[in-house]
Amino acid sequence: MSVLGQVLRSLQDPQDGSLDPDRVCVQLVRACRHAEQHMQGLARQCRQLKAERQLADRRERALRHELHRQEQGVLATLAAGHDAHAQATEVARLEDRQDELAADLARLEKRLGYYQRRWLEAERHYHDLCRQLAMAKTTACVRKTMAAIRRHPAVTLVNAKQALADIRAREQRQHQDTEPDEAPRALCPHSAEQVLARLQQQLGGRP
């Protein structure tokens, strides 16, 4: 049974089977919080495993580099005709360590894949709960509105008429408050005669 089904069954009135929408919403909010915490815990586990894998990768690369260096030393010793048993022993030890690191990496990959799958499932579950909560809130709101209309039909009608009048008034104000006209106005060009006349007038007006 889904979480919503469990919530509805737990809140159902045993006598008439009715449900309190507010209680349903409260229970779904709790379920969402719990699912979110679970998802966050899985995300932390994934981050930790990724960090461990990165550390193991670095160790494996360093070991591979050292193994290559030791192998080259063995080859040089053999080419010189000397005993390379001690060096070969070190190479064998490094190869054993390389196998151990490879096994560790394989285990980390499996664990990381497991927790990533669980995180994806938890994320889907969380979003499903959020959608169910949104639907429950909508249902509760509709029921409250319908109950208010049944209790106070006249008042509700007046409120609806007032709301409609407010909407129309707002639309009218928006229509009146139009964007300024950005079209350039025709300008009257100035002439030298106008400039001379104005300046001569100013000059003649001086004391």
Structure description:
This protein has 207 residues and is mainly alpha-helical. The protein has 5 helices and no strands. It has a single domain (3-173), classed as Helix Hairpins, CATH 1.10.287. Helix 1 (3-11) runs antiparallel to helix 2, helix 2 runs antiparallel to helix 3 and helix 3 (85-151) crosses helix 4. The longest helix is centred in the middle third of the chain and has 67 residues, at 85-151. The chain is flat, with a radius of gyration of 40 Å.
Keywords:
207 residues; mainly alpha; Helix Hairpins; 0% strand; flat
What does this entry show, briefly?
This protein is mainly alpha-helical. It is built from five helices and no strands. 6% of the residues are buried.
Tell me the layout of helices and strands:
Elements: H1 3-11, H2 21-79, H3 85-151, H4 153-176, H5 192-204
Helix pairs in contact: 1-2, 2-3, 3-4
Region (Disordered): 169-188
Coiled coil: 32-66
Biased composition (Basic and acidic residues): 169-184
Largest sheet, if any?
none
The outline comes out as flat
Report the CATH C-level class: Mainly Alpha
Note poorly predicted spans.
Answer: none
